[in-house]
Structures are given as C-alpha cells and as structure tokens.
Amino acid sequence: MSEEPTVEAASDFAGVPDAFGRLWVPHRMAYIGENKTVDKSGPRCPFCTAPGKQDADGLIVHRGALAFVVMNLYPYSPGHLLVCPYRHVAAYTDLTGDEIAEIGALTQQSLDVLHRVSDPGGFNLGVNLGAVAGAGIEAHLHQHIVPRWRGDMNFLPVVGQTRALPQLLEDGRQLLQAAWDE
Which positions are catalytic? Predict the structure, then answer.
C-alpha cells in the first residue's frame, strides 16, 4: 500500500534560506508598508523638508547650490549618506544637466570625506528608481553612498533581526560636516 504524497504548506518553509540564499525577513514589511510616497508638491517629503531645518535637525552634512548631502535616517552602515537634489523629482531623466553635474560632484566629495573620516574598505553607490527597484522614498530621487568595511555585516541582522551601528547619526554628521571643506 503506497502513501499519498503530501503537500507541505509554504509556511513550513518561511524563514528558511533556500538554494538561492534567500533570507526571509518579514519584520521588514512594517518599514516597506509605510506610505512614503508623496504627491508632486512634496509637502511631507523628508528630502523636501530637510533643507528648511537646521543642519543637525535635518541631518544635513553639506548644502550645495542645486543638491545637498544628508545622513540616511535608516543607515546600512555608519556614514551612509544620501545626495539629493533640492527639486522634488522622481526620475533621473527629469534632472537638469546642472543637477546631474552637482550630484556627481557631491558624490565624489562625499567619497573623499568618508575616506578621510572613517577609511572604509569600499563603497556601494546607487540610485533606486521606483518602489520595485527598492526605493523607500520613490517620489524624490536620491543617491546612496554606503561605506563598507571587511566583515561589517555579521550575524545580528540574520539571527537577532538587529543591525549594530557603532556610531550615532549626529556624531557621524558632525565628523563629516567638519571634514567637508578640509
């Protein structure tokens, strides 16, 4: 007598890494599910409101003519910076040539400052365009500059659902801002 094959529920495998090395992190849905899209006027957009605040309150490291550099409120690593145009635009193709040039120059200067302040072993640079591409705030374009060190990611995000950051945002902002014009 043969047994009927059983179908295991998908929930039996939730949280188990698969052959592709996926790690299921359902606790991130609370962050992903937040309504971070804003209308074209951008009244609630954090990248539109930050320039109107004092540098420390807006986490601003440097202000340019067309764009600014700000600490990421939810950093992947210490010194995680964002370069944002002042203008509320979502698409890279909507930037002017001058905005593209200044964002590029501020990115170069950010890399130089981060090298001098914290000597990372490398960087991740990126612009996530659209929610499906990973943009947490898709209505206002911003470039990520993420400093990386060998061994900077450990077991805590996997086991403890916790990211250990050894530096407070304001401490990092002050160091970077002080080094900006050196």
Answer: 142
